[in-house]
Amino acid sequence: MVRAAGRGAHGAGGPGRAAVTGTDVVSSTGSLLDALAESENRAALVGYLPVGYPSVPASVDAVRTMVDAGVDVVELGMPYSDPVMDGPVIQHAVEAALARGTRVRDTLLAVEQVAGRGAPILVMTYWNLVLRYGVEAYARDLAAAGGAGLITPDLIPDEAAEWIAASDRHGLDRVFLVAPSSTPERLALTAASSRGFVYAASTMGVTGERSTVGSRAQQLVSDTRAAGARHVCVGLGVSRPEQAAEVGAYADGVIVGSALVRALVDAPDERAGLGALTAVTQSLAAGVRSAR
User: Fold this and answer.
1) pLDDT (mean) for 9-23
2) Which of 48, 94, 119, 253 has its CA 20 to 30 A from that of 29?
3) Sheet holding 44-50, edge to edge
4) Is 252 marked active-site?
């Protein structure tokens, strides 16, 4: 479930990192979204894959494959034992990754290995994992690995003071979520607190492939921008090229997860999985590029 709703190009830091000058932070993710809009008149394709599925090395190969096939921004999932926002396909992959012993440090290692690929790397994590690791320590280590920031589906800005301070110190993006049920006050607070983009959940519920994108997604993007957000990306339910084109016509980014993970889950072996992932990513990228 989306808790945020219930409560209402590279910087100087290097590839995938924000540049920090004193207390000023320039978002590498936001800069990329601006560059794509200005130079190519299109939205970004944001692709999610979990670390550790089918193994840590194989998941790194999958992320590299996904970027080479057309993903602009990587959402790298940190496996968690109670992924309340994730649908069955992602849950299956996450459970398999945990069963293989994937841990937080594996995610940092994966970030380090893919950060130079040319796409900002945002780690998607449930907040308890960061609390256990230590907020300051995690921000420090994520920045050192070349990560661009965090997407935190179960952390709301009201309770994020420690993370906001740590992300400022280490030049990291912080992506909070909004949903169709978010109040104007919630939208304004989330817009003011986010850096990189605001994640607009197109519908209430968990991730997964759907026949249609939520009917309120476009209005949610408009409302979130009106509340002060510079960039808004839409996720939950995008799985086909025509859906990517639909969302890419009005959002700054199109977020896809389950369709990409399914390409790996349904494949008979790792090589076939990478081939399927390439095909799915290319079709989604073509959809995004045809939107405007």
Assistant:
1) 39
2) 94
3) 173-175, 149-151, 121-124, 73-77, 44-50, 253-256, 232-235, 198-201, 177-178
4) no
Of 75, 141, 246, 252, which residue is the catalytic one? Answer: 75
What's the whole-number average pLDDT of the chain?
90
CATH of the domain at 82: 3.20.20.70
pTM: 0.90
The token duo for 267 is: 């494949």
Which DSSP helix (H) or strand (E) runs through 239? Answer: none
CA distance 163 to 165: 5
Counting the structural domains of the chain, the total is: 1
pLDDT (0 to 100) of residue 87: 83
Domain extent for 159: 3-17+25-289
Q: Is the peptide bond before 54 cis (omega within 30 degrees of 0)?
A: yes
75 is catalytic: yes
Distance CA 98, CA 167 (A): 27
List 14's β-bridge partners, or say none. Answer: 11
In one-letter notation, the amino acid at residue 239 is: S
Catalytic residue among 72, 86, 223, 252: 86
Written as one string, the DSSP assignment of 29-73 is HHHHHHHHHHHH--PEEEEEEETTSS-HHHHHHHHHHHHHTT-SE
